Amino acid sequence: MKKGIKIVTIGGGSSYTPELIEGFINRYQELPISELWLVDIEAGREKLEIVGALAKRMVEKAGVPIKIELTLDREKALKNADFVTTQFRVGLLDARAKDEKIPLKYDTIGQETNGPGGLFKGLRTIPVILDIVKDMEKLCPNAWLINFTNPAGMVTEAVLRHSNMKNVVGLCNGPIGIERGIAEILNVPSSEIFVEFTGLNHMVFAKRIFHNGIDVTKKVISLMTEKEENAVSLKNIADFAYEPEFFKKLNMIPIGYLRYYYKTAQMLNDQKRAFEEEGTRAQVVQKVEHELFELYKDQDLAIKPPQLSERGGAYYSEAACNLINSIYNDKRDIQTVNTRNNGAILDIDSNSAVEVNCLITKQGPIPLTTGELPVPIKGIVQQIKSFERVAAEAAVTGDYDTALLAMTINPLVSTDIDAKKMLDELLEAHKEYLPNFF
Ligand code: G6P
After folding, report:
1. pTM for the whole thing?
2. Residue 29 lies in a domain
3. What is d(CA 42, CA 48) in angstroms, rounded to the nearest whole number?
4. What's the mean pLDDT in 336-356?
5. How many secondary structure helices (H) and strands (E) does the chain include?
6. Ligand 1 pocket check: which of 17, 234, 259, 315 to mutate, most ligand atoms within 8 Å of Cβ?
């Protein structure tokens, strides 16, 4: 008999955890998980206990024999794990609020995965991920690391270049969201759609769209332009429509984050307005989280509450559970994940992380060739990859000048002078989470 699967979720106290539990429950027949360890740190103890108790009620109600363990002892949890999922936030939402707020003072986009905020989220996160990788090499050397912690692309890049870990996949709900948006606009089931994705995490493009084998890219873009819905909405990003002529000529669907690059001034003004009216996105999310945890405390609640869909990470458990299911069962289906490029995108370095369609097998994702990046997006994708590589190096070395270089080459930062000022202010603000720099 096969032994049951052991899964470890680091950042288990996250408000998203019920999504994951629901996904595992729904797939139990194919994915017989015997143990799910939810791990957190002391600062997350209370949340871990609340969400852990809900997780236990959920599996009990569903009648599946998944044993849920809650712990603050990461090493104990990792022993003999099969899959390790990471969904933690170094410095919690307070740190995110600073990443979103400080750049605004310099007339720069304040965002958790793009621009200066994305750089700092990477600087805080990468050393922690690399510590987890070291623990995994000791305690569960054959396990898969499935990372959702943002910035997921930069984190995957760092693991690929700065550790010996081979079994790593970076995951985002973005591509699934785009695919669903397309299916909705065409009014057909998503199973009939095939989308060829190319690019990087939060810098990905639906390059070609097929419906039952027919290329419908132009049709989808026309429909989206008519409905002024032209980049598929995400809960966390203002959904201004692009100029129709531009969008049609681009003839690809950019993930919502591209609005920060193609509509920088408009997005910046909107962020400033939102900041005055309701605070940063982190502050909005803090309120949603507070309400969610109040609901989670209810002893009668034993399902994932619908309020969770107010968060930007909708479908993330689908992405995670499908991926784990396909690796475990060697399904060889196609999913869009962050993995080593290996020549799938011809004009990105082979050893870099890219977000592309992959065949998901027991030996991991095999990226499918998508060829050269189309000329209109080649520059921005390569530029962001350069930024991610320099940023990952800064995170690992703690070198000030490398961090300054990363900040300055980011296309959302307008001058070297502002780059230095923002770097200094953000370093000071996040001091306690940046031991490599201090
Ligand atoms: C998006 C992204 C995720 C991100 C989330 C933020 O959907 O793909 O990577 O974590 O939104 O959502 P939030 O509700 O935290 O702003």
Report:
1. 0.96
2. yes
3. 9
4. 98
5. 16, 13
6. 234
CA terminus-to-terminus distance, the chain = 51
Which structure tokens are listed for 422? Answer: 């923002």
* Confidence grade of residue 2 (pLDDT, cut at 50, 70, 90): low
User: Which structural domain range is residue 30 located in?
Assistant: 5-171
Centre of ligand 1 to C-alpha 170, Å, is 14
Per the structure, the count of domains in the chain is 1
433 in active site? no
CATH number, position 34: 3.40.50.720
pLDDT interval class at 235 (50, 70, 90): confident
3-state secondary structure at position 183: helix
Indicate the DSSP class of residue 42.
G
Q: What is the DSSP string of 368-413?
A: PP-BSPPHHHHHHHHHHHHHHHHHHHHHHH--HHHHHHHHHHSTT-
Q: Which of 16, 106, 242, 257 is catalytic?
A: 257
Strand 33-39, strand 5-10: pairing: parallel
Burial class (CB in 10 A: 0-12, 13-18, 19+), 274: middle
The preferred substitution site among 235, 259, 278, 284 for testing ligand 1, maximizing ligand atoms within 8 Å of CB, is 235
Q: Has residue 39 been placed in a domain?
A: yes
Report if residue 66 sits inside a domain: yes
Closest C-alpha among 164, 121, 122, 129 to residue 146: 129
Question: Does the annotation list 172 as a binding residue?
Answer: yes
Residue 131 within a domain: yes
Atom of ligand 1 nearest to the CA of 173: 8
Per-residue pLDDT tens digits for 282-309: 999 999 999 999 999 999 988 888 888 7
69 token code pair: 């363990």
